[in-house]
Amino acid sequence: MDGTLKVEDDDIMALLDLVGHNMRWDHDNEARVALWRTQRWLAPLAQLNSRIRSRRNVAHHYDLDDRLFDLFLDPARQYSCAYFDDPSRELAEAQIAKMAHIAAKLRLEAGQHVLDIGCGWGGLALFLNRVAGVRVTGITLSQEQLQVARARAEASGQADAVTFELVDYRDVPGSFDRIVSVGMFEHVGKPNYRAFFDRIRALLTPEGVALVHSIARADGPGTTDPWTAKYIFPGGYAPALSEIMPHIEQAWLWTTDIEILRLHYGYTLRKWYDACKANRDAIVSAYDERFYRMWMFYLAAAASAFFHDGHMNAQIQLTRRRDTLPLTRNYIEEAEWRYRQMGAA
After folding, report:
1. CA 242 – CA 249 distance, rounded (Å)
2. How confident is the model at residue 67 (pLDDT cuts 50, 70, 90)?
3. Could you give all domains of the chain from N- to C-terminal order, each with its CATH number?
4. 178 vs 115: CA distance, rounded Å
5. Which of 59, 112, 139, 265 pairs as cysteine with 63 (C-beta 3.0–4.6 A)?
6. Which letter does DSSP use for residue 10 in this model?
7. How many other β-carbons are positioned within 10 Å of the β-carbon of residue 310?
8. pLDDT tens column, 175-213
9. Taking Cα atoms as reference points, which of 101, 142, 95 lies closest to residue 123?
10. 3-state DSSP call for residue 205?
């Protein structure tokens, strides 16, 4: 970050790719096995995310200059894992595919009310309304995201059906036919997992469906590395499924589907990295050289975590009742392709 280490062609991605490969999470990698799961005992101390602390943590990252995110995200501003049939697919197309995939798993019907927990800049909420005719309430703790989301809803003529609020998930009133949360669970904090899933159950109608999309770990419980915790995502943590599932069980929720996306976020991060590299001058102008080096290190290190470490994405579908959804998963594929075509149009 300080510029005292020079990387040839300024390609920190290539360096971290090399380091990551040599330290890859693999049972036959003796170096990695020897270091596996160090520092785990410190993890809970960094994840006591109260309402005040949660809002401060969100502001640290998501209230950055709005121009920054326009330089590398897709037009829908999806700041989460895209969904690739092919790694060469354009980012915008892969993000539409991700939103269609999620929408299909929610089994939407026109007129339903959807809660989007951690709505970002509103892209998913607006998409769900366009393709399925549902009402959506999106919630965020970022003032910057809130302003952009509301402006986008007004500009697209969807403000009557898609609304956005600055509120903590613990304080949302009412009930909802569907609940979706994409890329937010990483900020909940392990001490709050039970409260999170209890709240989902309380907010869902008896026939409701929820979908939680989160970064997760294949290598078991761990901790957020100190650099990321300090500079990028304070209070953030990507959990193992073994840390999530007990709280779902204790909340009396049915886990009706789990899908693991292994390499998708790695490909997403590489596209973000390439876009930021192409827009280097604009990022330096908005911030400075040190910020640019920090941001590129973050994207490159995150990509390495998905290509070489134990990181992955998990989509967990939940219901209150065992008979809410069809007996097979055929309904997902049937709806997904329809939503993809509508999204592309």
Report:
1. 11
2. confident
3. 8-344 (3.40.50.150)
4. 6
5. 59
6. G
7. 19
8. 999 999 999 999 999 999 999 999 999 999 999 999 999
9. 95
10. strand
